[in-house]
Amino acid sequence: MKFEEKTINRREIFKGHIFDVVVDDVALPMGGEAKRELIFHKGAVCVLAVTPDDKLILVKQYRKAIEAISYEIPAGKLEVGENTAPKAAALRELEEETGYTGELELLYDFYSAIGFCNERLRLYVAKNLVKVENPRPMDDDEVIEVYHVSLDEALDLIATGEICDAKTIIAIQQLQLMRK
């Protein structure tokens, strides 16, 4: 069976710092045509950071897209030139958002919402965390509060809906699986 849709025409709607929006006219594999509204994202990294005293590091911040406060693992978009060095980008984000650094190991390489977006996330686990004496500053447009929670507390935050971010849920549930 054929699955691939062929792009007939692409119309650029928006070109931004973080993502671009296009509308594609596509030829369907079994005949006919359709429109696809797509977001092309430059990619992101995220870090499951566990301190030496076995606490997960979460950041609390306001997310305008959902008009709510969110608890998440440290994360951020890839900056220009970081596409070939996502591990370095993850270390940068970890230090900027939490003041920690450590050794990173890739857990997952996944997409956030493949129905309309190509945002590729690389999820790392941070081991042997140490506090940085003079950490890099946070981005000027970020207001973040750092939390240290146990795995059980993090699972409770998922159960109550206070953690509603997919990458964070994936990371915490993966940690739970690794510990079984």
UniProtKB/TrEMBL annotation:
GO cellular component, as recorded: cytosol
Keyword tags: Hydrolase
Query: Any idea where the Nudix hydrolase domain is?
Result: 39-171
The alphabetized list of GO BP terms reads: nucleoside phosphate metabolic process; ribose phosphate metabolic process
Q: Which InterPro entries match?
A: Nudix_hydrolase (IPR020476), NUDIX_hydrolase-like_dom_sf (IPR015797), NUDIX_hydrolase_dom (IPR000086)
Which cofactors is this protein said to need?
Mg(2+)
What Gene3D superfamilies would the database entry show? Nucleoside Triphosphate Pyrophosphohydrolase (3.90.79.10)
Give this protein's Gene Ontology molecular function annotations.
hydrolase activity
Pfam families linked: NUDIX
- Know the name of this protein? ADP-ribose pyrophosphatase
Question: Organism source for this protein?
Answer: Streptococcus cuniculi
